[in-house]
Amino acid sequence: MSDSVTAGPAAWVNLPDLSEKLGVSISKVHQMIRDGQLLAVKHEGVRQVPAELVANSTVLKHLPGVLNLLRDAGYNDEEALRWLYEPDPTVDGNPARGLGGDRAREVKRRAQALGF
């Protein structure tokens, strides 16, 4: 994947800043990424997390479940990122935004359908 995503996140957070924002160690952030609770990709040469996927000091509630469904459907991290940011007005503009609102169930349903 190139260092930019066509329809991507508006803002990014590097891992040390995310560690501080979440109030956990940097090794915990790496563990969360390995465990599929967070999505991190290279952006501008540095591994970063889309800022929209972290609300206040927590990861969006439905993100780990959606990431798990996307991985089960064969998506790697870059493909999952593209899917989350594909324009879709029926889920608040794109699935990533939908995860933070009342459209989260619809986003999960669509991610689940990808595996079939």
TrEMBL record:
Residue ranges occupied by any DNA-binding protein Rv2175c wHTH domain in the UniProt entry: 10-53
User: Which residues does the UniProt record annotate as the domain Rv2175c C-terminal?
Assistant: 61-115
- Signal peptide span: none
> Per UniProt, what is one GO molecular function of this protein?
DNA binding
Q: Which InterPro entries match?
A: Rv2175c_C, Rv2175c_wHTH
Top-rank taxon:
Bacteria
User: What name is this protein filed under?
Assistant: Rv2175c C-terminal domain-containing protein
Q: Which organism is it from?
A: Paractinoplanes toevensis
